[in-house]
Amino acid sequence: MPDMQMENMVIASVDDHIVEPPDMFQGHLPADVVQPHIVEEDGKQAWIWDDIVTVNIGLNAVVGRPKNEWGMEPAHFDQMRRAAFDVDARVDDMNVNGIFASLCFGTFPGFAGKIFTQRAEKEPSNAYRVLQAYNDWHIDSWCAKHPTRFIPLATVPHWDANLIVEEVRRVHAKGCNAITFPDNPAAAGLASLHDESWEPMWKICDELGIIINCHIGTGYSPPYPSMKSPIDAWITGMPISIANSAADWITLDAFQRYPNLKMALSEGGIGWIPYLLERADFTNAHHGAWTNKSYAGKKPSEVFREHVITCFIEDDVGLANRHLIGVDNICLEVDYPHSDCTWPHTPEGVWRSLESVPGGIPDDEIEKITHQNTFRLYRFDGLEKAGGREKCTVAALRELGADVDTREVSLAGIAPRGHAPGKVVTSEDILGAMAAQRGE
Fold first, then answer.
1. 8 Å CB contact between 281 and 299
2. What is the DSSP letter of 426?
3. How far apart are CA 351 and CA 314, in angstroms?
4. C-alpha torsion sign, points 288, 196, 190, 207
5. Strands 44-49 and 52-54, sheet pairing
6. Cα 326 vs. chain centroid, distance in angstroms?
7. Cβ atoms 313, 336 nearer than 8 A
8. What are phi and psi of 282, to 5 degrees?
9. Which end of the chain is more exposed for a tag (fewer CB within 10 A), N or C?
């Protein structure tokens, strides 16, 4: 399309989030199965699953609230925008934001299903049944309600590679081509990325074209510099924290055996990637004689471009260096409803970032970055099913969402942040607020 303008972009996001509704397991599990449920105490809501308690109902689901009220809450469904947990309302919020398609990570199980692995340590059969029910809800209730708008994402039983194969085949038959996985499984208490036990998963993902999505913080957690450090330091370094895991993935020998195997650095940004690839190539050329690491005649940067998917919200530096990253593996993210989300002005931010590049970006590359890469990599045909490109642009969607109320809603005094107004918020403040949510 010549002469691209913001209004005629089509935007797909490979990183958004769901706050699961309280009734999500109804109809997906028989009554005799030990299943998670919501309880309320002292104005807080929590998921209870046998002896597992998780109270961070909508952790950081602050979209739609004044920025000066943000923190690491809410801990109650009434304290967040309905679109965080209601799929119909989510589509409304996507429309008013000009977003056509979305891939959503879960909140209750953790971004890579940590809670299922935790439960499996005690009762693996129960963990697996509930995990399958979770996937059924996500695919059959959330995504299928608006199939042209959502890209399915499944959680898999990381404690058993053979069960991973079984579940991947099952969800793939439902039309799901993506799974979650820790960015560093060893840091999540699982086998190393290089352990042979993962071989069945590499093989099935290569065979079926399943994208392995690794969200920041699912293995290697971004460290707090110190308890007295302003939380700004942690927020700034959070996306880049996945760089260490990315360096490890580049060395994965399975990429040499499985040409269709691909993983995604979810919510990691892209500006830091050119240096990582330069450093990886230098390391291989300068140290390879003694480290004995082989890339089958390729440079590490070539392996990255063939197997790794990236994404960004706004990233001027990354776009200026997009060819060093690989234009064919760059996607967009929105991060709704978390605090990095720019709703309801995401297209304006994306367009500003695109226009920041000296000399501009050709329309065909804009098309790739904004949606074509996502649709190709995740094999998503929503654009065609929705009736064609002209019905899926920022302008067309915003016309559908013209009646959506985007006014900010203050919850001052209702959703306490755990720190005093006007005070520089520190790591200690945030961790203290989260501990308070847990009743500690």
1. yes
2. B
3. 9
4. positive
5. antiparallel
6. 20
7. no
8. -60, -45
9. C
Alpha helices in 369-408 (DSSP H): 373-377, 382-385, 394-400
Question: The tokens of 178 are what?
Answer: 């993506």
Name the fold adopted by 12-437. Answer: TIM Barrel (3.20.20)
Average pLDDT, the chain: 95
* Chain centroid to CA 200: 24
The two tokens of residue 371 are 């949606």
For the question of whether the overall pTM of this predicted structure is more than 0.90, the answer is yes
CA-wise closest residue to 15 among 404, 353, 309: 309
Cα separation, 23 vs 32, in Å, equals 16
Please give the angle made by the CA atoms of 177, 118 and 116, to the nearest 5 degrees. 30
Task: Specify the amino acid at residue 223.
Answer: P
The b/e string for 9-23 (b: 16+ C-beta within 10 A; e otherwise) is bbbbbbbbbbbbbbe
Question: Which amino acid, one-letter code, is at 257?
Answer: R
42: exposed, middle or buried (C-beta count within 10 Å: 0-12, 13-18, 19+)?
A: exposed
- Name which of 28, 86, 44, 89 is nearest 405 in CA terms: 89
CB contact at 8 A, 325 and 310 = yes
Contact at 8 Å (CB) between 76 and 57? yes
Indicate whether 391 pLDDT > 60: yes
CA 267 to chain CA centroid, Å, is 6
Q: Which residues pair with 54 in a beta bridge?
A: 47
Q: Give the model confidence (pLDDT) of 25-52 as tens digits.
A: 999 999 889 999 999 988 889 999 999 9
- For residue 23 the two structure tokens come to 């009734």
**Cβ distance 265 to 242 under 8 Å?**
yes
What pLDDT is recorded for position 435?
77
Cis peptide bond N-terminal to 362, omega within 30:
no
